[in-house]
Design brief:
The protein has one domain. 0% of the residues are buried. Helices cover 94% and strands 0% of the residues. The mean pLDDT is 86.
């Protein structure tokens, strides 16, 4: 096998022409298409990274808002508890005051009823004393004058016993 220079030259010429044609009509558009595809992929990657960064930022903002809302809710709960405790204390204090008022009113009523009962007992004692004295003397004494005399005596006796 001997090398044939004529075939080699023509092969070389055809190869160079084919290279020129391919580089002008095929390699240029293919390179541009690959570069365009590469640029599109890079743009998509950059957009995805930007979206991921934006999503991370938005997530951190939402977490901060949720935390702030949680803190505010805790604050409202604490304020509600404080108001409830204050209301409870006020209600207890009001109940104690009402209880004291009722006890004081009951004491006054008891004292008033006691005074009425003592007065009633004195009147009955005067009536009994007059009736007894009337029977002893066997005559009917003048009732109004004698009644005043006995009442003044009994009231002086009652003052002595109460004062001692």
């Amino acid at each position: 096998m001997r090398p044939d220079t004529g075939v080699m030259v023509w092969t070389l010429v055809i190869f160079v022409i084919l290279m020129l044609v391919l580089s002008r009509y095929a390699f240029g558009p293919l390179t541009r298409a690959v570069e365009a595809r590469e640029k599109a992929l890079q743009d998509a990657l950059d957009a995805a990274k930007a979206d991921r960064d934006a999503a991370a930022k938005l997530l951190s903002e939402h977490q901060a808002q949720i935390e702030a809302a949680r803190d505010e809710a805790q604050k409202y709960i604490a304020e509600g508890r404080a108001v409830a405790e204050k209301m409870r204390g006020d209600m207890i204090e009001q109940t104690r005051k009402e209880q004291q008022d009722m006890l004081e009113r009951a004491r006054r009523d008891i004292e008033s009823e006691k005074d009425k009962a003592i007065s009633q007992l004195r009147r009955e004692a005067v009536d009994l004393a007059l009736a007894g004295a009337s029977k002893v003397i066997e005559q009917n004494l003048e009732s109004q004058k004698n009644r005043q005399l006995v009442e003044s005596y009994l009231s002086s006796i009652g003052t002595l016993k109460v004062g001692q």
